[in-house]
Amino acid sequence: MDIGIVGLPNVGKSTLFNALTKAGAEVANYPFCTINPQVGVVPVPDRRLAKLGEILQPEKLTQTTIQFIDIAGLVKGASKGEGLGNQFLAHIREVDAICHVVRFFESPNVVHVDGKLNPLADVEIIETELALKDLETVEKRKEKTSKNLKTGKPEYKEEMAELEELAGLLAAGRKPPRTPLVMELQLLTAKPCIYIANMDEEQIQNPESVPMYKEFVEYARGNGNEVIPVSADLEMGLLELDEEERAEYFAALGITYQSGLERVVARSYALLDLITFYTVKGPETRAWTVKRGTKAPQAAGKIHSDMEEGFIKAEVVSFEKLVEIGSFALARDKGEVRVEGKDYEIQDGDVVLFRFKN
């Protein structure tokens, strides 16, 4: 799963990226500090996996991973190439979902590209540029489809009708549905999006009291998106502390602690309809990520292609039942391990032992 971090220059994208990934991207007080996208692969926080590790005591405990990509700041006119916009928009096209960082913090030391703080106006700039680039993509496809209409094939007539509808939606500033054609075109505005409201340490203690925050949340929900308040600076400052020390710090502030990474990952999984299952064979207990609805052979293929091709069956027990009983073997002895075939859809929290032909 690739998550692209986007936004205007100087909103805290690279600081958030560093807080999430500990990757050490350059952070500076000028636009386009980031030119080439920075990439960080991060183990996904997983309390269930940690619990399995406590109970099963494997030699190796392996988390699934998520990849964050810090994409350079976009500016007004990016769709026409301003600020190297075409290059940066191409980077966005490759990601699965977008984390749109929006600045709420005030700082005389960090210039705002427009000279004043206005989260809704900032978001409008980015979303307008994405829509304009998508309009360009749709118009290019219309030109191609128009030529194909001469063949008389009905599929091209249907495609042109959908392209006309998409152009109308984009021109009106509305998000297109995730149809097969939209997915093929890789439209930027159709990508799942999370807004990150980047605040300072004082603001994060009571986001509801921050000017323009409530209006911003209403705007986001109206577009079917969610806002996650995060203090990237604060998270960066706490990187050297362990989880227990961070929790104590946030408790002192009166905040229920959950790291920015945990919140971003949880929401990303929900947006992309992803689930986690676990394998416990041999010395390693490991987490794996698949789309909801993935069938057992394809889930086995995540581990190795030979396992998908030679799939025989899956022995499955729920995370909760395994924790209750204490071991996979004992769960099997108690009749709590189910035997599932090729049509079984892997469920979130399944602990699985795949059987396959070598």
Extended strand count: 12
Order of helices and strands: EHEHEEHEHHHEHEHHHEEHHEHHEE
What is the share of helical residues?
40-55%
Enumerate how many helices there are, as a single number: 14
Taking Cα atoms only, what radius of gyration do you get, to the nearest Å?
Answer: 23 Å
Contiguous uncertain segments of 5+ residues = 24-35
Oligomer: single chain
Q: Assess the beta-strand content as a share of residues.
A: 15-25%
Summarize the biggest pleated sheet.
6 strands, mixed
- Look at the helices and sheets and give the structural class: alpha/beta
- Give the end-to-end Cα distance, rounded to a whole number of Å: 29 Å
| Global outline | flat
Q: What is the mean predicted local confidence, pLDDT? A: 87
- Give me the side-by-side strand order of the main sheet: 2-4-1-5-6-7
What is shown here, in short?
This protein is an alpha/beta fold. It has 14 helices and 12 strands. 41% of the residues lie in helices and 20% in strands.
